[in-house]
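Margin note from the TA: students keep mixing up input and output lines. Inputs are the sequences; the output is the structure of the whole complex. Example:
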Amino acid sequence: MSDHIRAAIIGSTGYGGVELFRLLASHPYVEVTAVISSSAAGTLFSEGYPHLTGIYAGVLEDVNPAAIKEKADVVFLATPPGVAAKLAPELLETGLKVIDLSGDYRLKSPALYEQWYKKQPADEAYLKQAVFGLAEVYGERVKGASFISNPGCYVTATTLGLYPAVKEGFIDPDTIIIDAKSGVSGAGRGVSLGNHYSEVNENLKAYKLNQHQHIPEIEMILSDAAERPVVTTFSTHLIPMTRGIMSTMYATVQGGRNAADFIELYRSFYEGRPFVRVRDEGILPATKEVWGSNYCDIGFAVDPRTGRATIVSVIDNLVKGAAGQAVQNLNLMMGWDETLGLRFVPVYP
Ligand SMILES: NC(=O)C1=CN([C@@H]2O[C@H](COP(=O)(O)OP(=O)(O)OC[C@H]3O[C@@H](n4cnc5c(N)ncnc54)[C@H](OP(=O)(O)O)[C@@H]3O)[C@@H](O)[C@H]2O)C=CC1
Ligand SMILES: CC(=O)N[C@@H](CCC(=O)OP(=O)(O)O)C(=O)O
């Protein structure tokens, strides 16, 4: 077990990449030795991100696997879909450890990836090699791995909120409906018509209904929990805030369980996992309560009149939904305490 490593970030000019930099900059065992850009190499990192003035004096570097290997032991890919599919094999072949934040290695079926992402899938041998890092569920597999595929942001909030109830038969998996909402940083730093200020401000929009690329990833995890195929309705909405995801999930309760039973199950399932916090009965979490942190907070309401449970799960999309969970996975990979570099209180208000 090593106690110091050097990290490179590809896609550092994006929101996921710059959030990785923020977290790694205060990690006790990690030094960021390269920030990489495919379009702005040679310019100062702080030029695009003035909040880093006086914090990181280095320039952005080219995407060159051999050169990255000279400077780093682990590389994070915070790049758009399709980039890691091509780049990760080359990075792995140099001997680098790789943590990919994109969706390129999450689905193990190339055909399924092509269907939902409309892009050329990664090589099947590398798809098999990538360990899916939903840390609180598959953390044991992450330990000692050298290639991690970090889960999607919506997927993290949703499946941490559903997995114990499906696994233990508290809800009927065939009745699940997921209503999810994200802040605009979930769409990355690039500007498009759908996410500029006057389109988003004072507005609430549903998008990608029945077509969201996270649907097969959610179904992969729920099917694993149920030990049979599960399909689900998953609806996404864009809300006028910067960070945060709330997944509100509805399902028919089995076995007459009440909210107290759910709370007891979840507290037991996530015991010893410091980043999942289960609210007391009658208290539902809000996105602001996890803002800037690696927490996933979960609350329950069970309606005896309808026989349905409502599960509310919140995360910060850029932390637990992306960079924070990637750092958590690095900690698990390296055999370190999973909270290293992530022990901070949410920003409030
Ligand atoms: N935003 C979020 O909340 C979450 C994002 N993700 C995933 O993480 C990844 C990054 O997302 P996000 O940071 O939001 O996106 P951004 O659009 O903000 O950033 C992506 C960065 O990737 C770089 N890039 C683009 N093309 C290439 C290429 N061919 N080779 C190398 N680098 C390239 C660009 O930088 P440059 O031009 O400088 O190279 C760009 O800044 C995506 O796959 C996203 O789906 C996952 C969970 C949550
Ligand atoms: C608000 C918003 O647009 N969010 C993005 C989340 C994208 C993402 O995180 O993509 P992958 O996890 O698939 O890499 C979306 O809904 O597509």
